């Protein structure tokens, strides 16, 4: 999503800005609690997978926005502009010129997001949302 927003493909950058702005005003725990307590998600057999998807969807805007900023910064360097000017494809520029410059930042983002998600899982377990509830039969 960050790469597509960086390329401004089909308005993904507008959607990313909107979703990041919308989800940044509400604390993550509140948004996950609101979505997890909806009846279709509350009484399903695949509750664990749905909870993983909910947490990922709530955090995707912030993570993609920070990666997009790093891509924009790396794309303004001279050697990337010269690779574009000689006719390299977008995939080649991304793979050989952009990605090596953001590897370190991606690892830092993954480790810091892992800590945030583990803290969120602890909060959800304390509230009792993560427990698998049996359906009423």
Strands, helices and their partners?
Elements: H1 2-7, H2 12-24, H3 28-36, H4 39-42, H5 47-75, H6 78-85, H7 90-127
Task: Give an overview of the whole structure.
This protein has helices at 2-7, 12-24, 28-36, 39-42, 47-75, 78-85, 90-127. It has 137 residues and is mainly α. Helix 3 (28-36) packs antiparallel against helix 5 (47-75), helix 5 crosses helix 7 and helix 6 (78-85) packs across helix 7 (90-127). It has seven helices and no strands.
Strand content: under 5%
**What percentage of residues falls in helices of 4 or more residues?**
over 70%
Order of helices and strands: HHHHHHH
User: What's the shape?
Assistant: elongated
Which ranges are low-confidence, i.e. pLDDT below 50, for 5 or more consecutive residues?
A: none
Count all strands and give the number.
0
Termini separation comes to 42 Å
Mean pLDDT over the residues: 81
Structural class: mainly alpha
Largest sheet: none
- Give the helix tally: 7
What key attributes describe this structure?
single chain, 137 residues, mainly alpha, 7 helices, 78% helix
Write a concise synopsis of the structure shown.
With 137 residues, the protein is mainly alpha-helical.
């Amino acid at each position: 999503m960050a790469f597509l927003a960086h390329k401004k493909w089909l308005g993904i950058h507008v959607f990313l800005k909107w979703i990041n702005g919308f989800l940044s005003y509400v604390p993550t725990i509140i948004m996950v609690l609101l979505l997890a307590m909806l009846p279709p998600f509350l009484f399903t057999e695949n509750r664990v997978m749905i909870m993983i998807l909910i947490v990922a969807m709530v955090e995707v805007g912030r993570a993609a926005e920070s990666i997009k900023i790093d891509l924009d910064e790396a794309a303004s360097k001279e050697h990337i502009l010269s690779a574009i000017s000689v006719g390299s494809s977008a995939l080649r520029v991304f793979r050989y010129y952009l990605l090596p410059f953001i590897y370190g930042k991606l690892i830092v983002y993954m480790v810091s997001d892992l800590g945030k998600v583990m803290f969120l899982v602890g909060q959800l377990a304390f509230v009792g949302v993560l427990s698998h509830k049996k359906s009423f039969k």
